[in-house]
Amino acid sequence: MSDPQRLFIGGEWVEPDRGHYEVVDPASEETVGLAPEASRDQVYQAAAAARDAFETWSRTKPEERAAILDAAADVIQREAEPYARLARAESGATTATARGMQVAVGAARFRRYAKGALEPVEQGLPPQINAAGPMGRAGVFGALAVRRPVGVVTCITSYNNPWANPAGKVAPALAMGNTVVVKPAPQDPLSVYRMAEALAEAGVPPGVVNVVTGSAPAVGEAAVDSPDVDMVSFTGSTAVGQRIAEACGRGMKRQLMELGGKGAALVFDDADVDSAVTGIGTTFSFYSGQICTAPTRVIAQRGIYDLLVEKLTGYLGYLKVGDPAEAGTVVGPVISAAHRDRVESYIELGRKEGARLVAGGERPAREKGFYVAPTLFADCTNDMRVVREEIFGPVVVVVPFDDEDEGIALANDSDYGLIDYVWSGDVARAFRVAGELRAGGVGVNTIGRNMEAPFGGFKKSGVGRDVGSYALHAYSELQSIVWPG
């Protein structure tokens, strides 16, 4: 454990007004470090520092912003091993995940938006011929649509990826000329302070990036309601997102919301079942199911239903549950004791609702750590809470269906619509079905992602889109400029 962490406000490392709280390793239950507990006043100071820095930063040349983001990526890559060890310790991710999907993706996102800072912000529009009238003389009018920075952006990030998620907000926001206040999840905030150190070393001016933390809700509330904040970018639960949206609505603040998910995986009779099992099986292992894009709700056609359940059960046998630092571990702990209790309560609820427990359901026999055994429920119906609600753990439910129309109806019968999946040997049908699904993204015979494709959800899964150039659009306002030809 290192020295107690300080806040990062206005380019300075600042002692927190309300002391510190412990960050706990989910695998060992030992203290990883002490995170600062900011006061509301300090959060407001961070937003004010971002406001002061905005005028200068927004006017810097794109090449300067690109150079700083590139330099930050260099620092992250140079320090990748210690950064990955810290991320593993505070998030419970396996070593491979901490290295490859957390720190490496964080660096890649800074690198991507270094290039993004150089993307054109102007779009020429077709000229318009106007007759003489109340608005003036006849003429040909040209027009530009120009993207401008929004201003001060509060970035509130999730606990399941303390590198990729913050980098996916901070990097495009900075590339567009915004300044930021970052409020990480309370469970694993220390990695975000390392990100701030990397940006400071890369030459980001004081006040452009600020990081505040706290275990109390008041810290996040202040980061949203500060009068200096123009936009809130949030990743987390739908319930919290709704409260943030209400506060943003009162202040007419822009928002980007990436919220919950209960991804439907439609598996048709003609599907490659092994491919489907591999894709669905990642729910059990990847972040221990703590990922909103996971295909947690399997909707299987009856012709392959029994085979799919059998193969998913067999897949569980290859998943080693254990210490994330040990070689061969596939499933680590969930983030906290409270979250373990929540996941276990859903498993018990599934039993009571009449779902058939095929595998898992018992707490792994380990002396320390917040572990949940990968769990599979079959013979579920769409009215069960375990089918309808986001569990955010290594739990998969399977619902049978007969024909295509029923499968689509079951998939769409959800409050969520982040990413759904279709497995079918008939590619034409797979794309036809994808077009009927009410989700922001659809994977066809894959759980893979194209990192230039827009990312976001329908319904209660969010508002807005980011990733690739779409993130640059998300962190900008459109201004029109019109002139006579």
UniProtKB/TrEMBL annotation:
One of its GO terms (molecular function) is oxidoreductase activity, acting on the aldehyde or oxo group of donors, NAD or NADP as acceptor. The keyword Oxidoreductase applies. It comes from Streptomyces lunaelactis. Residues 13-481 form the Aldehyde dehydrogenase domain. It comes from the Bacteria. Signal peptide: none annotated. InterPro entries: Ald_DH/histidinol_DH (IPR016161), Ald_DH_C (IPR016163), Ald_DH_N (IPR016162), Aldehyde_DH_dom (IPR015590). SUPFAM superfamilies: ALDH-like (SSF53720). Belongs to the aldehyde dehydrogenase family. Gene3D superfamilies: Aldehyde Dehydrogenase, Chain A, domain 1, Aldehyde Dehydrogenase, Chain A, domain 2. This is Aldehyde dehydrogenase. The keyword Nucleotidyltransferase does not apply. Pfam families: Aldedh. Keywords: Oxidoreductase. Coiled coil: none annotated.
